[in-house]
Amino acid sequence: MDASFTPEQDEIRRTLRELLHSRCGPRELRAALDTPAGHDPALWTELAGRLGLPGLALPEAYGGVGCSATELALACEETGRALAPSPLLATAVLAAPLIGSLGTEAQRADLLPRIASGALTAALAVPGPALATALALTGPGDGDWAGGGRAGGVQARRAAGGWRLYGQVDQVLDGHSAGLLVVAAHAGGFARSRTLLFLVPGDAAGVVRVRQTALDATRPQARVQLRDVEAELLGEEGADVPAALSRTGDVAAAVLACEAVGAADRALERTVEYVKQREQFGRAIGSFQAVKHRLADVYVGVQAARSAAYYAAWAVAHGGGVGGLALAQALEASRTAAAEGIQLHGGIGFTWEHEAHLYFKRAAGDELLFGPVHRLRAYAADTARLFETSDAREVAV
């Protein structure tokens, strides 16, 4: 692994940081969160038009930039620093890879160029609080969430000329504003239930979307109801949906790890700035040894998480398989950095007007959506058969 960045990667990071610094400050962030979409459409247009961010990891044949997921992960480190609310995660990290890997040529040619240009946003709708399991981050992707004869979630049935969907999904990232929904639904009835993915326009007849109040307002979520909605099957019926979701999950974990590292680094940076200025007993509180030790521990955690996240981002293009562990490390570092930031800011750290709580909510919200940390690590250990005896491994082989 070459740990140095290429000139192109450095340019992406520099340009994105400058843009977010000027367009996504604290005031702009809060104003965007209060809009119906939960993000600034003008900023999204600039991210798409000027930087090509939604198409960064899409092939040039479909209007993308042609970079790898590594560049997308490094770009998301900068969006994480600013807590930039945008449809980037839902569209470019979760939905677009599934369309690219499972979609027919006609579906890819129709949808991916519009996603790459930013004209079309998309969201992945997975029944229940099972997104981390569906992406094979905290459990096998072919587990109970995928149906297995169980009712609930979203059901699919054949109809004249296509498919019809009915059901409800409660936690869909950017589901209230996405122009396209990629819906995981059970098909085949009780005895032969299996999971397929379907394409549903966000404004289709029978689709009811309501934005939910979420712990982390910078990641808007929606409840999506599908009332006998006409849907298009994504790809072919015999496609291996769990395998495609697992591959997408490994990429998403690497991207999220970099994003969490960016948030943790910024939270630590803001705290260091504050303790240098805040005086108590006639001296800056940052000069006290206890404060130095606490911040040193946070720094070590952030740097360790950054190393893991960068390795996971590099590994995406070289076999992958370590995204879950890197995500666990990054989420833990982000939570610690945000919590220490609130504590060391003292009284103002607890106020609604200060930004410290936004970083803590991002860390806590991400762990609820994609974790928790101990399950990420436990599943990675189970997958690697880390705690099996040598005899058990020989039998398994």
Automatic annotation (TrEMBL):
Cofactors required: FAD
Residues in Acyl-CoA dehydrogenase/oxidase N-terminal domain copies: 6-118
The keyword Cell cycle is assigned to this record: no
Domain Acyl-CoA dehydrogenase/oxidase C-terminal as annotated: residue spans: 252-373
GO MF term set: acyl-CoA dehydrogenase activity; flavin adenine dinucleotide binding
UniProt key word Flavoprotein: yes
InterPro entries in the record: Acyl-CoA_Oxase/DH_mid-dom_sf, AcylCo_DH-like_C, AcylCo_DH/oxidase_C, AcylCoA_DH/ox_N, AcylCoA_DH/ox_N_sf, AcylCoA_DH/oxidase_NM_dom_sf
SUPFAM superfamilies assigned to the protein according to its UniProt record, in alphabetical order: Acyl-CoA dehydrogenase C-terminal domain-like, Acyl-CoA dehydrogenase NM domain-like
Keywords: FAD, Flavoprotein, Oxidoreductase
Source organism, top-level taxon: Bacteria
One Pfam family this sequence matches: Acyl-CoA_dh_N
PANTHER family linked to this entry: ACYL-COA DEHYDROGENASE, ACYL-COA DEHYDROGENASE FADE28
Family in the record: Belongs to the acyl-CoA dehydrogenase family.
Protein name (database record): Acyl-CoA dehydrogenase
Organism: Streptomyces cyaneochromogenes
